[in-house]
Amino acid sequence: MSKLRCHISISLDGFVAGPNQSEENPLGERGERLHDWAVSLAAWREPHGEQGGEVNESTRIMEETLENVGAGVMGRNMFGPVGGGDWGDGQGKGWWGDDPPYHNDVFILTHYPRDPVEMEGGTTFHFVTDGIERALELAREAANGRDVRLWGGAQAIQQYMAAGLLDELELHVVPVLLGDGERLFDNLGDAEPQLEQVRAVDAPGVTHLKYRVRPGP
Length: 217
Known about the structure:
This protein is α/β, with parallel strands linked by helices. Helix content is 19%, strand content 29%. The chain has a 9-stranded mixed beta sheet with strand order 5-6-4-3-7-1-8-11-10, sandwiched between helices. A hairpin with a 5-residue loop joins β5 and β6 (124-128). The mean pLDDT is 90.
């Protein structure tokens, strides 16, 4: 069976987004610093239609995050800036414009139904209102044997970890302190997952820690 994988940048104090998230600051104040290591890479820039970039120890890590991924799952707030059932001007295409960087089917966790939205470059957003298990089931069907990537945000990752459905977690640990924002390992209750370290890779501006995730006691 395909794996559910999550790869996410995180601060030293455990936040995956900074405080005061808004349409102008989707990752919160100073949250963009979590991704400086990635956006400088040629392996990140090329899929986003940009030229140049660095090649370093993070290159292979970035390439692996994109390998064997057939579909994705993400939370409502990660999809776009408009909350609730207001999809914005009848469009609501998300943060990434007409050509998002996913290039496959992405299933959005939401309480508000909406028809699928087909974008340029092969991305289709589907809106799932009947829970995380159903979203994962649909994503696995769309992935056709390949893996499903859990894109975030923190609440979506917490739900899948608490339910014992996440197979792999890779943390890109960035040496910044955000002090507040979206903390990754909150709201797990008694379902604390067991993390088995697979590898650690030191790279400029980031340390990559990969874990297999086992359900908690």
